[in-house]
Specification:
Shape: globular
Number of helices: 13
Number of strands: 0
Structural class: mainly alpha
Helix content: over 70%
Distance between the termini: 19 Å
Order of helices and strands: HHHHHHHHHHHHH
Radius of gyration: 22 Å
């Protein structure tokens, strides 16, 4: 029996053995949802407020769902623009499949999206993308995605602090995040000039070592090379005005739009710059090791908006309504996409994954 046939049939194992990871992910998702719905209100005494979620204006919430779907499409468009190359199998269909599966994993494993990154890398390898292309492409994708994030935080934060935009301007929510975002941008761009020095240092360490240590230093030297290659690829897309760059803006912009629609479903939205800054400050809680940032992102966003003098009850309703949309919309199709990827992996020719 060939290797491909062996992978395809997998020894005729049970459904549980073939799909235990996906089943486990669904079970974990349901457990997290049950915890958030039945237990969390009693812990934080938000029962009456959460009960008002059912009285949100359905038309605005439906608009939030549509905007969130547009956000996901933007991410798919950027993904295709970064990874599609002549000779590989990355097209609109595979881009959506990998993106949705990665988004679902991100919701289940926080730590700055580590689960989503792992599934995305695996999905790219399943579709025959080489290891070097995966490494460079992931850096490029991250630079373009989080470049928009950092730029928006800097623009909105400084704009509020200096009075260019309307709204309150507490330093901890405007000046400090904007300054940190600016530092991140400068450090990222500086790697273009520091790459050779860092790589040379690591290669010299490898030459002076032996065995496993030498291999480790050689692998470490590949990191700055991949970072530089990814940065250059991102800058090249910007210089040629690649249309897929709009996907990065759409990804964040429509997601913020879903939050805006949720605010409108329960009352009035804060000023635009306040909405943008509160959103980005809150999403920074994704680095917490919680399933999908459950609890952390909500608390971060609500706290940020309260710091901007938004009424606590309105901020709570708007953020929880938005998070219900942003959590479930990519997760359910993502589970299906993950199963499709597993089937694709089983039917791929040897060496393609």
């Amino acid at each position: 029996m060939s290797a491909a046939t062996s992978r395809l049939h997998g020894g005729h194992g049970s459904v549980w053995r073939r799909h235990r990871r996906a089943i486990g992910a669904v079970v974990a998702l349901l457990a997290a949802a049950a915890f958030a719905y039945y237990v969390l209100p009693h812990i934080v005494s938000l029962g009456p407020t959460l009960g008002r979620l059912r009285r949100g204006h359905i038309a605005w919430l439906a608009l939030g769902v549509a905007l969130e779907a547009c956000s996901l499409f933007g991410e798919v468009a950027l993904f295709r623009g970064v990874f599609a190359r002549p000779g590989n199998r990355i097209n609109w269909s595979s881009s959506a499949e990998i993106t949705f599966a990665g988004a679902a994993a991100t919701k289940l494993v926080a730590a700055a999206g580590a689960g989503g990154v792992a599934v995305t890398v695996w999905g790219l390898r399943v579709y025959g993308v080489s290891g070097a292309e995966v490494a460079n492409g992931m850096v490029c994708f991250g630079v373009l995605t989080y470049g928009v994030y950092a730029a928006a935080v800097a623009i909105a934060g400084f704009g509020l602090w200096f009075g260019l935009f309307s709204g309150p301007a507490p330093a901890g929510l405007t000046l400090i995040p904007a300054s940190l975002a600016s530092v991140v941008i400068v450090v990222a761009l500086s790697t273009l000039f520091a790459d050779r020095a860092v790589t040379g240092f690591l290669e010299r360490r490898a030459e002076r070592s032996s065995g496993r240590a030498a291999k480790w230093w050689h692998r470490a030297a590949e990191v700055p090379r991949s970072v530089r290659a990814g940065l250059l690829a991102a800058l090249a897309m910007i210089r040629r005005r690649d249309p897929s760059l709009l996907g990065a803006v759409a990804y964040w912009g429509f997601d913020i739009g879903a939050l805006w629609a949720s605010y409108r479903a329960f009352g009035h939205s804060p000023p635009g710059a306040v909405l943008v800054t509160g959103y980005y400050v809150g999403t920074a809680a994704n680095v917490l090791p919680l399933p999908g940032g459950i609890g952390g992102v909500e608390a971060g966003m609500i706290g940020a908006f309260v710091g901007f003098r938004v009424k606590a009850s309105l901020a709570t309703l708007a953020v929880l309504g938005y998070r219900t949309i942003s959590y479930w919309l990519p997760t359910l199709p993502g589970a299906v996409a993950y199963l499709r990827l597993r089937r694709t992996a089983g039917s791929s020719p040897p060496g393609s994954d």
